[in-house]
Amino acid sequence: MKKEHNEIINLISDYLNQHPDQRFGQAIFNIGINEFLNKVDPEKDDFRIRDIYNDQDSDIINRIKSQLEWFEKQKNDKND
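Structure tokens predicted for Self-protective colicin-like immunity (80 residues):
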């Protein structure tokens, strides 16, 4: 297994340990592995999932980390 694969698996595992009520499919969507094709205009009714076949592992890691940071910021803003 590549180092990047291991990091992705660890990020998913940590997230699922913190959110055991979520199904696996929910988790991979929530942490940004899968994403909608249309991320720019939420008014458009285009809810197709973007094909991530050509995404580099590093891109996926960056998306996950960015999403987890955003979750943490939202939680901190709510507590302020």
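The helical segments are 3-18, 24-30, 57-79.
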